[in-house]
Amino acid sequence: MPGSLTRFLCSCASPFSLDDDRDDPSLWTRDLRRCSGDVSAAVIQANQVLEDQCRVESGDFGTFVGVFDGHGGPDAARYTCDHLFQHYIDISKGPDSVTDNSIRHSFLATEEGFINLVSQLWSTQPDIATCGTCCLVGVIKKSTMYIANAGDSRAVLGRKVGHKVEAVQLSTEHNANLEEVRREMKARHPDDSQIVEFKHGVWRIKGIIQVSRSIGDAYMKYAEYNREPIKPKFRISEPFISPIMTADPTILSREIQPNDSFLIFASDGLWEHLSNQEAVDIVHSHPHAGSAKRLIRAALQDAARKREMRYSDLISIDKKVRRHFHDDITVIVVFLNHDPYQGRCSQTGPTLSLRSPLDN
């Protein structure tokens, strides 16, 4: 599908409309109205300050999707949402320059910039050293898709098989609850018997954080930030020289096949409540428009069921308190258009640009 998705999205330069979901004031959604929902996005806020961010950009450079799931505050997710796409554009200039390495370098350039910001603010805002973000990026360029991930967000492909759809997970996750991640961390830090610890019911890196890769989390990468005045719960007693965590993503590249139908990009808050197959079944069995919203509602219904409460009661809970029931959740669904004539527009036409709100 050479350029077909890009042309289709370009033809819808201003199609987004804010869908004010009145039954849940914490839910923000947008869909491509004139394009029958070929991109659907939704964010639900649970924290007092929204720590998730997302971004979709499309033009002659291809289509870029980013889901940034922050922790320890919103700063790292907001910074990454602001800067990673521009790094990708700068590094990937040229007709054939989108590669695994160019995407990797955009992650590492963003990491370098954020660590520099931590250094600048250390004396006045030391808590920014304990702020980080998981980072999931999808790039669609001509007939190839690239999926890059650092952290535990997830990208899932919906692939048509007959009249059904099967789920294909495309991203590799970096969470200490996965045995392969614990093995990786032990192999990277063979002299540290406490590199992973089981604490508060889950496996954690140094008994503190579940993810092993992220942008930010300077206190886990540079010893000069693992000291006062950051909070005691983040301080590691034994000295370390090499970074404990990394911003280096795992990257998959894949040729788009005729039966590839859609992609779901979502923060881990969605996958705590829905399996890959449940998610693709929901998208496949409904109209395109509202797909991201339906996935979030399904996740919240599961969260309510687990607490033996009604969905209507859950969505009436105030922010911050609501975090005890579910996480901030971000979902972007991208439908793959294989028809090169549908919605054709000029390559010099306006680009599509979408960013989630800083707060909801």
UniProtKB/TrEMBL annotation:
CDD domains: PP2Cc
Domain of life: Eukaryota
The keyword Iron belongs to this UniProt entry's keyword annotation: no
Classification via InterPro entries: PP2C, PP2C_BS, PPM-type-like_dom_sf, PPM-type_phosphatase-like_dom
EC number: 3.1.3.16
Keywords: Hydrolase, Magnesium, Manganese, Metal-binding, Protein phosphatase
Record's protein name: protein-serine/threonine phosphatase
